[in-house]
Amino acid sequence: MSIASLIRLISLAALWGGSFLFMRVAVPQLGAVPTAVGRGLLSSLGLAVVLGCMGYRPRLGRYLWPLLLLGVINSGIPFLMYALAAQVLPSGYSAIFNATTPLMAVIVGTLAFGEAITAARIAGVVLGIGGVAVLAQAGPLELTPAVLGGMAACFTATVCYAFSSFLTLKLAGAKSAVDTRAAVFISQLGALLVLVPGLLLALVLEPKLVPQVVQAPWLAWGNVVLLGLLSTALAYVLYFRLIADEGPHKALTVTFIVPVFAVLWGWALLDEPLSAAHAIGGGLIALSLWIVLRRKAH
């Protein structure tokens, strides 16, 4: 992995680690579905402004609908799932479940895309999952039905991310005719195809959401803005470029680092405690990254 890609990888992990904290602050005040919709809408608007200032006008032709579908899988469903999980799971736990995405990508790649499994890839993923498991022991939760539902939501999101990483490589990879900027922008519009109907359904089922959103404090809205502009719009620019340059397996190793940042942000901003489990788990994750990212791994 090049130095530029490594910098993108670390920056992406920091942004996505922060996303779980932003959701934890916003969701209790705004609700899960409004938070997810706000995230998708702000990321789309932010990207539109940036691309407009650059004078960029995407010409997609036959790629429009595939990119919209990519947005549903890569953004819309995961945004909603993680917002739902934020109602019952601490931010670190959602980030820990997110770290199982590379393992899911190995399974999906083998079963659906004909990818070969190498010993180094398996060893790195297993070691990374071990590090995540150690982190999970830093603060165990009681397995109530609500917690299990939150875990299921996180698992659904990881499956979506695994599939979308391969689709991204095909649609916006280094040899693709689609520019990364266009792919990111259209995919965020695609996310709204599932999020907006979800919001309308939520408003019908829970009319109290309207006054809840209107009366939400500015702190909650501020976290949605950070979630949409930094942890989504900017993050997906880095992520799509990483997939184009390094491939889906190496790009998805970012999810191993995300829990480390999520824990660090919690410690620095929310006074959440650190423990030896965090240090041991972080060390195992770092070793797994070295195994997966070293030049001999394919």
TrEMBL record:
It comes from the Bacteria. The keyword Membrane applies. Gene3D superfamilies: 1.10.3730.20. Pfam families: EamA. Coiled coil: none annotated. The keyword DNA damage does not apply. It is found in: Membrane. Residues 9-135, 150-293 form the EamA domain. Keywords: Membrane, Transmembrane, Transmembrane helix. This is DMT family transporter. The chain crosses the membrane at residues 36-56, 63-85, 91-113, 120-140, 146-169, 181-205, 217-239, 251-270, 276-293. It is a multi-pass membrane protein. It comes from Comamonas guangdongensis.
